[in-house]
Amino acid sequence: MLVLQTDTAGSVSRLFEEKSPFSGELNLLFSAGAARWDVEPISLAIFAPDEQRPELHDFQAKFDVVFVDGSGYMNLAADMCSATLAVVRGSFN
Q: Under a CB-based contact definition with an 8 Å cutoff, are residues 35 and 26 in contact?
């Protein structure tokens, strides 16, 4: 999920540029430690006007952590609670 989101943001090539694959992977994991998906939800979907598709605030109202897939209908982090995200953050800080 994180690689897809980072790739969408256009920064995967910067993560691995002029570094070993291991260094790139470490940078990717450390960026996971900085994730604030409970406060700032992210989405792989392009939220164009669509009357049927829920918006990010709809997901935030129902889930602690929000990472919406490319279709815009599924929260990939639906089973993750804020406490689990805090443990992940603490592991990389």
A: no
For the chain, what is the largest distance between any 2 Cα atoms, rounded to a whole number of angstroms?
45
What would the mean pLDDT of 5-19 be, rounded to a whole number?
53
- Structural domain range at position 36: 2-92
Cα 2 from Cα 72, distance rounded (Å): 16
* Structural domains counted in the chain: 1
pTM for the model: 0.66
